[in-house]
Design brief:
heterodimer; A: alpha/beta; Glutathione S-transferase Yfyf (Class Pi), Chain A, domain 2; three-stranded parallel beta sheet; 10% strand; B: mainly alpha; 2 domains; 54% helix; globular
Chain lengths: 396, 237
């Protein structure tokens, strides 16, 4: 096969510049510039907001209330207490929100798994959801780390590729919607981080004796990495501050471990059709290392795939006498428990696989009584007394 | 050796000798034509940081550095081999974005996978065996995974707790306090109009057509479903 080097040499001969197109610029400023040119609409933060700093030093504002919850299909489908804990914490802090039915998945899990999509489709799905939020008047808050990372990728692509903007604008026009992006793309763990002092002030359970390890989610801090939250007071500003900042605010001792940068092993397609890799990576590179080096009571993390992978992968490893057996919770579930949430009615821990009961006991929670209460709820549903439980029921 | 007849490998070891050079080159040109290509590749310092960070490199014969280098050198034979053999091992975690040169090997893999799917290559068909139900879910319901996918026989390795879910599925879903989450066949309740808008996107962007190359039966089912719903809503393509 002939090497097609003519094209390369042709570029060089023509003096074509090599431009590093990673965006170190302020994406908010870039969006506002495009809006000024009539290219798109920017949904503004229009309520009280908390300012935080990103990895690249930019000020990022996190709106506190009136939020449009962009749910996660993996959370809602398989670990629903992840989603309900986010809602519950927001309700307890007294901030209003909208839980929309006019929302699809970002479809990025499938995209990273199977590639059965393309940049235009992925951008159009993202913008359709953002347009739904814009029409509602609520500001989007993204539950899934992959949605968050992928939407930031989409934002970069829309900013830098006018031809993609034109294509997506045409598709949106066909749906009667504008090409709209929010002023900031915000992950729920950033919201928890920004409000960690308010959350800590509502703590009713003793978490001071709890030791945690934190798994930072790859699609939170590796994709468009400059836009993730960092804080010089947390890991010296060398790792993302979310999750750890919240845990420390709640009085938890966060211990370090050597494979913190490793992914969880989710793999997108691997978790569904090639789980030998997922199970091995999750247990050998993460859970066992955490146990050997940090001996935690719980792994705290902040993305759909990470909770699923680290939680579900331990059962098979246990059969091989590996050093596993560690509770895995999202930061939202842990914060909710600390604030007094019911472990089953709110945090839905019966959907988890790794044993969380020792953690609950250490937090002073009588899980047997709580399970009996939940069983009582189920009997009410079975008897026809109620068709569904609601928020009044879970706070009862 | 001149620049027009150089080989990076001897033809007999480059692999896939039965595939016409023009076919390999055409696929490579598709990779380069992607709008993201210029954002994902700048060169390579050969430092290996991406390999050190890569989870798949620890378990498979896979290297994000080889991906970036093969594409940068325009080694069409090796790129073809990678499209057929390597790319589906990538975890898409994007740990390789640690690259000090600014490369995105995981992003290059995404592009290469798209090319493999779009052209119905054997590697794509093999990688997506067993995946059809998930594609059907995401394209037809708007949510990728649903509670009713937690079947005992599909997740034996997740332990007895997961096996409890199908036994109590309807009841446990009705016990969720968020009213959008009482569903069993989708992650949450997606509005009917929202689904129609999603179908419009799949059809308008060619995403649905990509399915035809790897699973023609699934494509036919989805196409019929989507076009029928759009017609009912009076939306023209």
């Amino acid at each position: 096969m002939t090497i097609p080097v003519d094209a390369l040499w042709g570029d060089k001969a023509a003096g074509a510049p090599v431009v590093d197109r990673r965006s170190l610029a302020d994406p908010r400023a870039e969006l506002l510039a495009l809006e000024a040119q009539g290219e798109l609409i920017v949904q503004r933060i229009d309520r009280e907001a908390v300012s935080v700093r990103t990895k690249y030093g930019r000020e990022k504002r996190i709106q506190k209330a009136h939020l449009w919850h962009h749910k996660s299909c993996g959370q809602c489908g398989h670990i629903p207490g992840y989603s309900t804990a986010i809602f519950w914490v927001m309700r307890k802090l007294g901030y209003d929100y909208h839980d929309p039915a006019d929302q699809t998945s970002c479809t990025a899990w499938n995209y990273y798994a199977s590639a059965t999509s393309n940049p235009a489709a992925q951008a159009a799905v993202a913008v359709r959801n953002f347009a739904a939020a814009y029409e509602s008047g609520y500001f989007p808050l993204i539950h899934c780390g992959t949605s968050y990372g992928h939407y930031k990728e989409v934002r970069e692509e829309l900013i830098h590729h006018p031809e993609l903007r034109a294509q997506v604008r045409d598709i949106m026009a066909g749906l009667g919607k504008p090409l709209v992006l929010p002023e900031e793309i915000v992950h729920y763990s950033e919201w928890l981080h920004a409000l960690r002092d308010e959350i800590a002030a509502k703590r009713v359970r003793d978490t001071s004796g709890i030791v945690a390890t934190v798994h930072p989610a790859c699609h939170y801090h590796k994709i468009v990495e400059g836009d993730a939250i960092y804080d010089p007071d947390i890991y010296g500003g060398q790792r993302t501050a979310v999750v750890t900042g919240l845990a420390q605010a709640l009085g938890v001792e966060v211990r370090d471990y050597s494979t913190w940068f490793d992914c969880c092993g989710f793999g997108f397609r691997h978790i569904l059709v090639q789980r030998d890799f997922t199970r091995s990576f999750a247990t050998l590179r993460k859970i066992e290392v955490m146990k050997e080096e940090a001996a935690p009571d719980v792994v705290l993390t902040h993305d759909t795939g990470c909770v699923t992978t680290l939680d579900k992968s331990q059962f098979a490893a246990k059969a091989h006498q590996r050093n596993v057996g560690l509770a895995v919770l999202s930061d939202a579930q842990f914060a909710a428990l600390a604030m007094g949430a019911h472990p089953y009615r709110v945090c839905q821990l019966h959907w988890h696989s790794a044993d969380y009961r020792p953690l609950l006991e250490k937090m002073g929670i009588d899980w047997q009584q709580a399970w009996a209460e939940f069983q009582s709820d189920l009997r009410r549903l079975e008897s026809g007394e109620k068709r569904y439980l609601d928020w009044d029921d879970v706070d009862g | 050796m001149t620049k027009t007849d150089a080989h990076y490998k001897a033809p007999e070891v480059a692999g896939y000798a039965d595939v016409a050079p023009e076919e390999k080159l055409a696929l490579f040109e598709q990779v380069k034509a992607d709008i993201r290509f210029g954002d994902y590749l700048y060169g390579c310092y050969e430092c290996g940081i991406c390999v050190g960070a890569c989870p798949s490199a620890k378990f498979y014969d896979f290297s994000p550095r080889r991906i970036a280098q093969a594409v940068a050198r325009q080694d069409v034979d090796l790129v073809y081999q990678q499209i057929q053999e390597d790319i589906w091992e990538c975890s898409q975690c994007f740990s390789c974005l640690r690259c000090p040169r600014g490369n995105n090997p995981g992003g290059l893999v995404t592009i290469m996978r798209e090319v493999a799917v779009r052209n119905g290559l054997a590697s794509a068909k093999k990688a997506l065996v067993g995946y059809s139900r998930i594609i059907y879910k995401i394209m037809s319901t708007g949510t990728q995974v649903s509670p009713d996918m937690l079947q005992r026989d599909a997740f034996l390795d997740w332990g007895p707790e997961t096996a409890d879910v199908p036994d109590h599925l309807d009841l446990w879903r009705r016990a969720l306090p968020a009213e959008t989450m009482h569903t069993t066949t989708s992650g949450w309740s997606v509005a009917d109009r929202t689904l129609v808008e999603l179908y419009y996107i799949w059809l308008q962007t060619g995403a649905l057509d990509m399915i035809a190359e790897v699973d023609s039966g699934l494509h036919s089912i989805l196409q019929e479903l989507m076009e029928e719903r759009l017609e009912e809503e009076g939306i023209e393509l």
